[in-house]
Amino acid sequence: MIDSKEKVQYFIDLQTKIVAHLEYIDGNKFITDSWTRPEGGGGTSRLIENGRIFERAGCNFSHVLGTKLPPAATEHRPELIGQSWEAMGVSLVLHPRNPHCPTVHLNVRTFVTESGVTWYGGGMDLTPYYYYQEDELHWHKICRQALDPYGADLYDNYSAWCDRYFYLKHRKETRGIGGIFYDDVSTDQAFDMTQSVGDHFLPAYCPILLTRNEQPWTEEQRNWQLYRRGRYVEYNLVFDRGTLFGLQSNGRTESILMSMPPLARWTYNYEPEVDSPEHKLMQRITR
Amino acid sequence: MIDSKEKVQYFIDLQTKIVAHLEYIDGNKFITDSWTRPEGGGGTSRLIENGRIFERAGCNFSHVLGTKLPPAATEHRPELIGQSWEAMGVSLVLHPRNPHCPTVHLNVRTFVTESGVTWYGGGMDLTPYYYYQEDELHWHKICRQALDPYGADLYDNYSAWCDRYFYLKHRKETRGIGGIFYDDVSTDQAFDMTQSVGDHFLPAYCPILLTRNEQPWTEEQRNWQLYRRGRYVEYNLVFDRGTLFGLQSNGRTESILMSMPPLARWTYNYEPEVDSPEHKLMQRITR
Questions:
Q1: Tens of pLDDT along A183-202?
Q2: Among residues A76, B5, B25, B42, which is most buried (max CB within 10 A)?
Q3: Residue A175 and residue A162: Cα distance in Å, rounded?
Q4: A104 shares contact with chain B (CB less than 8 Å)
């Protein structure tokens, strides 16, 4: 039998803490939607639409159980064939209305097998519509603080991994300005490190959100945000392994697609004017 | 050497004819964007944005050349290894502004190898936001007329293929109300049949478009359209083989993604009221 109590409790508490904080900031309540899965386990989706700050914000906790590891998981580890397993985690995407406020993504998760083999994965990455260097410095400083206690080279490695992972090949763009990404980590400290990532999310994001939300915005800036949100859709539906795996494996579609923006625009061959604020963002993320 | 002149001419003429007709209907001109591909060949994209009827409408012609067939193409035909090839076709997606007007997709294409082996594929399918039985009857009647001269069972087969192909597994919905889909057809009549499909597009779609465009629409109906357009995005980015192949093979991104709607909305767990017009559409496409 798998003893996952401590892990489950951490993820539930993280979701509760983050949602309470975001509700305080927004001034509106998130709805709560709990669901179960015929194959075992379930989850709770917390969501707000048309809030004061958040046009759409979702934070999912899920804990799913299986009686037999899928072939993909045991391909390189035949000793695990036939074992039961649990997967759990918290996944969040926030889409503020103000185009000066960046969209943000957080995910922390673990996978445990019957014999106790455990993997961790996760990270957080920031997707601004306008580029502010001071926001980037703050974001990456807190990302580094989350990882430094667990290894001096972790931030450099996981930050580079983040840029590689959140890359739109067909656009030659990163999704945003990066952060942390890691997967399949099973070191002794992996659970502590994963908790640290989860716990550093609010201090990394909220100061940026609250500062930028004070800036007024124009219809043109709003249109640029909607256009850039189209890239978020493209990334999540074409490249994101979590989204595709979820959709292909009978996951709960509405919870998986809580990451979609509330409204997105596509315009043919749009290129911002050279030296415009929009162009400055493109220079930062094109590679 | 491949002699593809007759085919190329058909596809160019089809694009010209369709665009001229749509320009007349809309009252505005399509832009023309021609491009070449470093590996050989190129194409012409014709597009309108913010037209009178069309919020976004794109019609691509492309003709790309290769010196060596890719491994996927020769896996089951080793006799073709190393041959040069050409692929060409016309691909169209129209997104009218009025929610009573359906979105429509047409694609006709062919693939030719050096030794003359030739495949055809294509079809057309209709994606309404509101369900009108008389529109469906007209649409499928013309689809049948396009295919009947080439085999009594073709319409039944290709119409069923269309429903299977344009299926959103994670939503348990077809993309729309179907039409025609076929692929890898290399019968003697395949080119004639493909021309017939292309030539039947305007009579199949335009009467529906012009009739529905006379109906006034409300903000609520517009929101429903934007919400349903989210499904179009999901289908094209998660399932459509043409789109994914294009994006993964260094195709011209802006031409491939001309199929995206100009504006799309996502709303959590939205379900139309029972017996509403929106619900009637869902009943038609849920399976």
A1: 999 999 999 999 999 999 99
A2: B25
A3: 10
A4: no
**Domain span including residue B140:** 5-285
CB–CB contact B268 A58 (8 Å)? yes
Instruction: Please state the rounded mean pLDDT for residues B269-281.
Output: 97
Please check whether residue A114 is in contact with residue A2, taking contact to mean a CB–CB distance below 8 angstroms.
Answer: yes
Identify the CA nearest to B165 among candidates A284, B157, A70, B138. B157
CB contacts, 8 Å: A33 with chain B: 269
Report the pLDDT value the prediction gives residue A170, as an integer from 0 to 100. Answer: 95
Is the CB of residue B47 less than 8 Å away from at least one CB of chain A? yes
Model ipTM? 0.94
| pLDDT tens, position by position, B80-118 | 888 999 999 999 999 999 999 999 999 999 999 998 899
Q: How many domains does chain B have?
A: 1
Phi, psi of B71 (to 5 degrees): -50, -40
Q: Residue range B190-218: average pLDDT?
A: 98
- By CB atoms closer than 10 A (0-12, 13-18, 19+), residue B43 is buried
> pTM for the whole thing?
0.95
Question: Using H for helix, E for strand and C for coil, what is the string for B155-199?
Answer: HHHHHHHHHHHCEECCCCEECCCCEEEEEEECCCCHHHHHHHHHH
pLDDT attached to residue A5: 93
d(CA B240, CA B231): 12
Q: What is the mean pLDDT of chain B?
A: 95
B1 pLDDT more than 90: no
Tell me the C-alpha distance between A177 and A210, whole Å.
18
Catalytic pick among A63, A95, A100, A105: A105
Q: CB-based contacts of B85: which residues, under 8 Å, 6+ apart?
A: B2, B65, B66, B69, B73, B111, B112, B113, B114
CATH number (domain holding residue A136):
3.40.1500.10
204-233 in chain A: CB under 8 A from chain B: 226, 230, 233
A33 Cβ under 8 Å from any chain B Cβ: yes
Q: Which amino acid is at B200?
A: H
Work out the burial of residue A180: count CB atoms within 10 Å of its CB; fewer than 13 is exposed, 13-18 middle, 19 or more buried. buried
Interchain proximity B170–A233, CB inside 8 Å: no
Which segments of chain A have a pLDDT < 70? 1
Please say if A76 is a catalytic residue.
no
